[in-house]
Amino acid sequence: MYLEELQKIVKEVMHSLGYETTPRIILSNRPDLGDYQCDDCFKLAKLYHESPISLGNKIVDSLKKMDDFGNYFKDVSVVNPGFINFTLSDKFISKYVRLMKDVDHFNLKKPEKKELFYLDYGGANIAKPLHVGHLRPAIIGESLKRIIKFMGHNTLADAHLGDFGLQIGEVIYAILRDFKDVPVDEIKFDLAYLDKVYPEMSKACKEDENLQITCQNITKDLQDGNETYQKLWKQICEVSIEDVKKLYSYLGVDFDFWYGESECFPVIPEMKEVLKKKGLVRESEGALVIDVKKDDDKIEVPPFLLEKSNGASLYSTTDLACIYERNERFHPDHILYVADMRQHLHFEQVFRASDKAGFSPYEDLEHIGFGTINGKDGKPFKTRSGETVKLNDLLQEVKEVFLSLKETNKDMSEIDKDKIVNAIVKFADLQNSLDKNYIFDSEKFASVVGKTGPYLLYTYLRINKMVNGLEVDNLSDTVHDIYDRNLRLKLLEMESSLTHAFEERRPHYIADYLYDLAVVTNNFYQNNNLAKTTDAGQKNDYVYVLQLTSKVIKTLLDLLAIDIPSVM
RNA sequence: GUUCACGUAGCUCAGUUGGAUAGAGUGUUGCCCUCCGAAGGCAAAGGUCACGAGUUCGACUCUCGUCGUGAACACCA
């Protein structure tokens, strides 16, 4: 909001000088010269055949002649080839800090149109326990959901469990083999069994083509309603979902729907009819496909696979059917898929098929891709014995390391311990940008010093202890010192970090801002001693600013799905 | 082979439609417990932004090429 006001003023001045443009005011990268800057003189120079510096001088002169200059600026200058620097006035800064505290929802702009975002960020495969690979989509998706909601939109979150694909056929094969002599109704197995059998079958099928075909057919029959398979499938779901829900709950990841692929099966025949009527479906090598390639494609985009040659459905079928069904039921404005970027081509095909079929248009569908968590060898992270690392084991390990750091940590409540484990893991993950793979470093995940979740919690608890519950009057227009000024300016940046994170679908902009804010805050109270401040007005302002800071930190931590413990 | 992503300090990473002197954490060295738990603060040191061209007043950022890493390329998810 404050940036818009600045922009408006500069724009008016430019117009009055005959320059038709909407200037871009950005954070200064030379804080020694000003708080914000405008680099538009270079572009205007070309347009109006003037030198950037003379152009800048005119603008600065006009700004300085404004009657209410002091309401906005302490100083405005133009330097070197033509950069305009703005130093904001105490009055202007304070006005917007007050608005942040006084106006509901931090005085953030509401969206012009409230939209519905449907988020799909689970993808847990129910044939086995959750492993480290499920950590990123869960954390990123949950955070995105909270950010989108906070920006004033509606959300629906779907766990989209992988519960009806080939992996289930493989596990069913193994169950029937291992429980050969047991009547189907009496077969009982647990999660550990699934965990043992799934990797084994997965490997065996890759090596043995006949076995793979057998499992494919089991999958097909399961989808067609074979009773024995259905019974076993239901048990697999029960055994597994309990564990899945427990872990997601530990992570504070919450879904509106615990649907799986199986959920959309009833609409598949209907969807196929629609597609056929539109003339989109053709046969290819015994399978049914939809052509989705375009003339300007740089690569050969393979056709979208609607039905396998044995008649079974697969992940592309269910993903499209889900879009079809979600449209009928919810009419979402956007559907976001949080899944690692190896699946990019798959989503490209699904989105094109959806667009062609007239379900959801291409531009409403987004794949939020992210890199994989790798080991030091650059390959997906595995234990020394070559197994995938279970998510629960990772979390327990982080917890143990944390408890070993300080004797007193063991005395904390379980709830607080778990909140800190969450903070460690989530902040470690969310401070990375999405598109890179990252190296899993157990030391990093166990670290509590420096740029970490605990640092943020610690900062929050410290200032809160000082100012919580204190009564304050309104903030004055006086900024008392450089630390005070820096903190107030940093608070104003909350809005742009949110907008940026929302528009780019990247929570790490918030993580980054939060850390910066914490650093500035630490600086503030290291240098401004509240207890020794004798001037009542000054003390009031300090408390005011710290209370607002505390509120901002808490709010943004929540957007990263990080809860604050009672003590540290 | 084709296409995509990535390559920034010893290590792990930020870098907002192209802007001035490229920033953090960690590690190393040296200081600091004054309302608050030092899980903190300050300072020093650390860089040919993989490499080479091009576009531009200006390139870590855009284009092309080279090298390196990872990934995808229909009946797995």
Strand-pairing-aware structural class: alpha/beta
Question: How much helical structure, as a percent, in the residues?
Answer: 40-55%
In the predicted model, the low-confidence regions spanning at least 5 consecutive residues are none
Q: Any idea what the CATH superfamily of the domain at 392-559 is called?
A: Isoleucyl-tRNA Synthetase, Domain 1
Please name the CATH architecture of the domain at 392-559. Answer: Orthogonal Bundle
CATH topology description of the domain at 392-559: Isoleucyl-tRNA Synthetase, Domain 1
Structure summary, number of beta strands: 13
Fraction in beta strands: 5-15%
Report on the biggest sheet: 4 strands, antiparallel
How widely separated are the two ends?
36 Å
Number of helical elements: 21
> Rounded to an integer, what's the Rg over CA atoms?
28 Å
Q: What number is the mean pLDDT?
A: 93
Strand order of the largest sheet: 1-2-4-3
CATH class of the domain at 392-559: Mainly Alpha
Shape: globular
